[in-house]
């Protein structure tokens, strides 16, 4: 059920690994897993398009250092902002995967 409701938060190749880890997981961790707040990649993309030159997209993901650098350089003079439009969804999914891995360990 977890995978069905949260599949959009992960890359396709990560789903089978998550499924295997969830099957082998202790029942005591289910409450923690079901209550975890994952970042939505689509929202990250929208924020990146609308306010990416201010670094807000990176602040939302928890990359404070990159957010400050992006803010001070106005998105790397726009170049970094455009590059992030293509990368931010993957970065968000990787952050979600790290969050799940920390909970499953």
Explain what the structure shows.
By secondary structure, the protein is an all-alpha fold. It has one domain. The chain is 75% helix and 0% strand. The protein contains 8 helices and no strands. The protein has helices spanning 2-6, 12-24, 30-34, 41-51, 56-61, 64-72, 74-77, 79-104. The protein is elongated and about 50 Å long. The two termini are 20 Å apart. The model has no long low-confidence stretch (mean pLDDT 88). It is a multi-pass membrane protein. Residues 39-86 form the TM2 domain. One of its GO terms (cellular component) is membrane. Keywords: Membrane, Transmembrane, Transmembrane helix. Pfam families: TM2.
List keywords for this structure.
105 residues; mainly alpha; 8 helices; 75% helix; elongated; TM2
| Stretches with pLDDT under 50, minimum 5 residues | none
Q: Please identify the structural class as seen in this structure.
A: mainly alpha
- Shape descriptor reads elongated
What amount of the residues lies in strands?
under 5%
User: How many H/I helices?
Assistant: 8
Order of helices and strands: HHHHHHHH
Domains, number:
1
| Distance separating the two termini | 20 Å
Give the overall average pLDDT: 88
* Major sheet: none
Helix content: over 70%
Domain TM2: 39-86
Protein name: TM2 domain-containing protein
Keywords: Membrane, Transmembrane, Transmembrane helix
Transmembrane segments: 42-61, 67-88
